[in-house]
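Hi C.,

You asked whether I'd gotten around to modeling the 265-residue construct. I have! Everything is below, sequence then structure, no commentary in between.
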Amino acid sequence: MTAAAQVADKPADQPAKRHFSLPSAYTILFVLIVLAAAATWVIPAGTYKLDENGQPIPGTYSQVEPNPQRIVVDSLMAPINGLYGITGEDGSVSIWNSGELFGAIDVALFILVIGGFLGVTMRTGAIQTGIARVVGRLKGRESWMIPILMAVFALGGTTYGMAEESLAFYTLIIAVMVAAGYDRLVGASILLLGCGVGTLASTINPFATGIASGFAGTSISDGIVGRVVLLVVGTTMAIVFVMRYARRVKADPSRSMVTTFVISG
């Protein structure tokens, strides 16, 4: 009887509350494709005259017969044509045409391969372990940590566009810098400026320089000397800037920009 009463008094399991979550990137892209297809029924169609380089000539716009797209069929075929669509003699793009490849399947496969490689590398923790080992080896010599870590992050930025991947290191680097007598801005600047300058130069970045070179019809090696110079000069300037600020803050913590902002706010 007692056990039965306890079971009876037990509240029924309440259904789990649903929380709003952002849709995936694929969903957002597909919605944009559908909206673009629907817009062809509303927005007037037009064209420009082109010069010898294929660029539109200003002031030559004229309206043409509308060509509204099938919202369901063409929206579903758009990703496929974007990968392997072929331009026909009449200018249409379809996988059933015969002619020049319009789609960018080579770029898509390239991104999949490189992205898979980086995903495996990040999942194994190789990069995180390497950065943590550098931090551990330089314990007590935090002033040397600034140029070394900034050079490492700049190398990551210039080789594979390291940017969002650095978010995992902010807690570690900022905690070490604060413990060494600096402020949080020093730790954040090591990552932000290091990765930023490296990505800005993008000497062999496959996502920025590699894909852009492919669309431009040039080699990724074209202009690499200038990008290397930009990488070296930019990284050096960023290191000098952060180290000067770090020495100033360590000598007089009241000169910290973070502290000043908190006081004034």
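If it helps when you're writing up: The CA atoms of residues 38 and 71 lie 6 Å apart.

Thanks,
B.
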